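Protocol step 4 of 5: obtain the predicted structure for the target chain.
Materials: sequence only (see below). No template structures provided, no constraints applied. The aim of this step is simply to have a reference model before the mutagenesis design in step 5. Sequence pasted as it appears in the construct record:
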Amino acid sequence: MHRFDTALIHAGEPHPRIEGAIAMPVFQSATFEPKGASNYFDLPYIRLNNTPNHRVLHARLAALEGAEDALVLASGMAAIATTLLTVLAPGDHLLVQESLYGGTHDFTRGELRELGIEVTTIDAAAPATWAAKLTPKTKAIYVETISNPLMHVPDLAAVVEFARSRKILSLIDNTFATPLVFPAVRFGFDLSLHSCTKYLNGHSDLVAGAVVGSAELVKRVRHRAAHLGGALDPHACFLLERGLKTLGVRLRHQMASSARIARFLTGSPAITRVHHPGLPEHPHHALAKRDLQGFGAMLSFEVKGDVARADDFLRRLAIPVNAPSLGGVESLVTRPATTSHSGMSAADRRAAGVSDNLVRLSVGIEDPDDLIEDLEQALRIGQ
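Step 4 output (structure tokens):
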């Protein structure tokens, strides 16, 4: 069993190498000769996410999480929606963490409820309160390793134990942490979900998702995905495999920079609050320190003043790009109320703690001193 950084480079690669190629070739073919496939889902076909490019990714992602199998899909939301539609049926009940990514929030409260699936929110850091929200039809509990956009961290050990003792499934969106910070399946989660668009790829040039877990559960998701059609193109598979190889060096640098930036922002009179689990004052710092192998590279903060002041700050930044998404080599900054959480009602955003002047920063691999100087000059205006 190779260590993490070696597995990033070599896990799942074909032996012998295809025509001696060091880089995995792109198999840009929609279909292949069956060669003895015994059932429909074994037929090599792009929509079934099982071309040679897919298979390399599946093996590598499974190795990184300590899992039996993995599946890549067309987006993070494809992974989330397909998984939930696989493990839940009309009449079932789902427990979800408060303050989720906006797309997940909308899906669980929109489409799932339209299908007759009941959804109840929990404080994921307060396990003593969960049992009261169980019903005989509860089938799963869903959390985010580090939540979007407030960087909340659940009691991850309690989630795993709670699910096992109640015989329900434990699902986790591991996008912000990645397997480097939290190998979720090895830790005990049944399924780990990723938006590979973010850190796993790391270069802001593709959209992809992944589901990682036991062979039995991933097989169920794979069959549902074949009917929903969320296939990942082989060229995107090639780009994702290439991006994965540098995850370790990228994310370690980004985490070190984000820690420095978070400390800087806590001392700024222009900032009222900083959300970063590496800060001792963060409400879930102790949980993050106990269960995670790092604090991630995301942070958010509330700019003092009104929305106009926050927008003025964003306009004055020279290095971070004002754009949605995260996890790339370039720093990205956004107001979640206008991007990732814009689909939520204003009341739901307030209830989730997402204020209109909350700014989310995805720290890239630029020099942290340059980023801090840029943040400082943008915050200084009008003070």
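Step 4 remarks: The chain has two domains: 4-244, 247-380. The chain has a mean pLDDT of 95.
Proceed to step 5.
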